[in-house]
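Re: beginner question about structure tokens

> Can someone show what the tokenized structure looks like for a real chain? I only ever see the sequence side.

Sure, here's an example I had lying around. Input first:
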Amino acid sequence: MLEASSSFSQLSGDPGTSKFVIMTTVPPWKPVPDRLLYEQVAGHLAARMDAGELEPGRRLPPERDLTEEYHVAYHTIRNAMRVLREQGRIVTIQGRGTFVRRAEEKGP
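And the corresponding structure tokens:
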């Protein structure tokens, strides 16, 4: 699975207190030949969710747009969405789109 790298950034605040924000970045999309492509796309999207790039409640781009972003076939994106849906990471609402699930929406 793809992992995001983390860095810490200190915010200035009241004297004597410090607040730290974890800044994460997801490596650019770069598929490898020894893994199924749809699993790699699902892993990259999951890493973007974990990094906060795709925030809970946010609507994902349409699948056709994701095919262009990832330079893969439509069916590859459909399979990646199925994997993320099975993992409970996204929810699709007919007529509205596909959204990153909020923590309180996740089931058992």
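Each token stands for a local structural state, so reading them left to right follows the chain. The chain has one domain: 5-105.
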